[in-house]
């Protein structure tokens, strides 16, 4: 039986298939989808990146597209869809608490510009490990971290047969971050697999209960950028332990810290040498006083470090 995970956040306001359409609704939805596709095309074109088959994963933001859409293009614009048949989606949980990683019960993920089927075979493989739980469809639809990647993925993979493996990464402790990373590492070595990791960076301001400020950098937004860039540099080293120490020391409010940590453990334990490189950084606004607030966005591509050397230790 088909179970559709509706697009509930991506600016689509998609119709509920359980009720009849009202006059004009389908036309309005087509107009919204067309506008969204135009925006994605524009951002991807402006990023002007060369697509590479050596890019195996991206880290990209998940805020509303008016805030982070342009930044996200610098991640998704790297993807060469030619030989990829499966995309693993790793996103943090904002509303639902679990100390584990959770799999989707859906068979299809809907987007305004095209639906993406869930790879049920891999879901069963992961279920068989006994390490994952399942999230109910209402939990799945309430979470936006993976959904905001879907329209970009649907756009990039237009005309290609690709399935998705959504994995909600809960409040996973360090030991389990390593466990999930080791478990998923084998999938990284297959170039037909791709990983889309969802995370925003610093959430600064009293409304986020985080106001770290190092005056040596001058303006508050410069301090925030320095803090984020330090974290980005540590992620680029590929060392999950160093990233953990950074988070413990600065408590930077990186909401996708757990998915990023799982990715770092995956790259540490896979046979293919892959290096993360950040390509874009932005802030939703430039904080100048404690009354201000902002969210940071960063995009990265994880690329085979030595093409042709895959599979070697």
What do you see in this structure?
Strand 5 and strand 6 form a beta hairpin. The chain starts with a strand and ends in a 9-residue tail after the last strand. The chain is globular. It has 313 residues and is an alpha/beta fold. 36% of the residues lie in helices and 20% in strands. The relative contact order is 0.18. The chain has one domain: LigB-like (Protocatechuate 4,5-dioxygenase, Chain B, 3-Layer(aba) Sandwich), CATH 3.40.830.10. The C terminus is likely disordered. Strands 2, 3, 4, 7, 8, 9, 10, 11 and 12 form a 9-stranded mixed β-sheet that branches. This is Protein MEMO1. Pfam families: Memo. Belongs to the MEMO1 family.
Q: Can you tell me the CATH class?
A: Alpha Beta
Structural class: alpha/beta
> What proportion strand?
15-25%
- Fourth-tier CATH superfamily name: LigB-like
What string gives the helices and strands in order?
EHEHEEEEHEHHEHEEHHHEE
What is the CATH architecture term? 3-Layer(aba) Sandwich
Query: In the residues, how many domains can be counted?
Result: 1
**What value does the average pLDDT take?**
92
Helical amount = 25-40%
Q: Radius of gyration, rounded? A: 19 Å
CATH topology description: Protocatechuate 4,5-dioxygenase, Chain B
The counted number of beta strands is 12
Number of DSSP helical runs:
9
- Give a short account of the largest sheet: 9 strands, mixed
pLDDT < 50 runs, ≥5 residues: 10-23, 309-313
For the record, give the distance between the C-alpha atoms at the N and C termini, rounded to a whole number: 43 Å
**Assembly state here?**
single chain
Q: What is the molecular shape? A: globular
